[in-house]
Amino acid sequence: MKLAMIGFGQAGGKIVDKFVEYDRQRNSDIVRAAVAVNSAKADLLGLENIPKDQRVLIGQSRVKGHGVGADNELGAEIAEEDIDEVQGAIDSIPVHEVDAFLVVSGLGGGTGSGGAPVLAKHLKRIYTEPVYGLGILPGSDEGGIYTLNAARSFQTFVREVDNLLVFDNDAWRKTGESVQGGYDEINQEIVNRFGVLFGAGEVKDGQEVAESVVDSSEIINTLAGGGVSTVGYASEGVEPRENKSSGLLSRLTGGDEPDDNLDTAHTTNRITSLVRKAALGRLTLPCEIEGAERALLVLAGPPEHLNRKGIERGRKWIEEQTGSMEVRGGDYPIPGAGKVASVILLSGVTNVPRIKELQQVAIEAQDNIEEIRQESDSNLENLINDDEDELESLF
Ligand SMILES: Nc1nc2c(ncn2[C@@H]2O[C@H](COP(=O)(O)OP(=O)(O)OP(=O)(O)O)[C@@H](O)[C@H]2O)c(=O)[nH]1
């Protein structure tokens, strides 16, 4: 699937930056265009892979390049005021070559939390391509304002996008380690999971790969209908090998020549076990998989380690577990890969404890809204008055 990715705020920018690197390293073709939008100049300067002319600084007249200090109402205001500047960068994207937009943002801060839903709404008004969000929930130790921002931003973002993919920092924090210290690993996890999912069927022109059965329309159909999505992942190292069952035909028939029987059974069992591990292990947003409206199973790896029987069994098992009648499945052959990975996209999930918790926070926050506003105002003052912090110009 070819995406135009827009990272809003610091987390969004860093994650899109990593996606560009992932795409380059694997010679895949997921990121057709990458844009970073921020109100903090330093965050834009810190990016490594997004082209400089695709980094947009907004709100300069209001916050002087210092960020909005977790004030997401201000984040939303400056996004609206400067939407033309963002559109200027998007204008250079060959939109006819992209399957969808992906707006990536941390929901706990100010710039991305407030701005990402504004941008999603704008994109939906202008383009016919689907607009998806990738929202990052804050760790529960980050403080009241972050949780409240996330609660509010989540509600708006999910309404403005065609589907909101969610990653919960809180569930991924390592014991004894603050989320702050663990972002590199967390971001790599995000990019690996969504990279395999969006990469299914996408290879650069001229690269020789057998036809994949997963294509972008299957991802789009799984995400259609809206709501919240989560992604499961599991992988196992394998030895790539040259053998006669590596052709497309034997993959499609399950490679059932007599002397392949043992191998086939082993491959099938590995696939079904990876499907279970992906669904029952840690999801990007932990939730009950029962009740998910739609799902997509992608098995990625060297073609000789994939077979239709395993994928079909895995798909059926997901049908039973979710109770959904709309479970798609397919393979993503990567010749020479050192592992087989199972990725499950669960779309339209409803039984999500973290979201219920956030909704509760939003309700309770109405009672101490003044206190929270003060926390955010003083954050902002500190940032803007910080005159020592002279930054070199961006371009
Ligand atoms: N996974 C991940 N989460 C991050 C990262 N950086 C920040 N976050 C999360 O995203 C939330 C928002 O932080 P930022 O992206 O820094 O905020 P911002 O949108 O730039 O807004 P302001 O800094 O308030 O102007 C935080 O509360 C964290 O939970 C990152 O690199 N990876």
TrEMBL record:
Residue stretches in coiled coil: none
Name the record gives this protein: Tubulin-like protein CetZ
Record-listed GTP binding positions: Q10, A11, G12, G13, K14, G110, T111, G112, E142, N169, N187
GO cellular component terms attached to this protein's record: cell division site; cytoplasm; microtubule
Location of this chain's protein in the cell: Cytoplasm
Domain Tubulin/FtsZ GTPase: 2-206
One GO BP: cell division
UniProt KW keywords: Cell cycle, Cell division, Cell shape, Cytoplasm, GTP-binding, Nucleotide-binding
Family membership noted in the UniProt record: Belongs to the CetZ family.
Region (Disordered): 233-265
Single annotated GO MF: GTP binding
Gene from which the chain derives: cetZ
Its job: Involved in cell shape control.
InterPro entries reported in the protein's UniProt record: CetZ (IPR032907), CetZ_C (IPR048737), FtsZ/CetZ (IPR045061), Tubulin/FtsZ-like_C (IPR037103), Tubulin/FtsZ_GTPase_sf (IPR036525), Tubulin_CS (IPR017975), Tubulin_FtsZ_GTPase (IPR003008)
Keyword Cell division appears in the UniProt entry: yes
Protein's UniProt keywords contain Cell cycle: yes
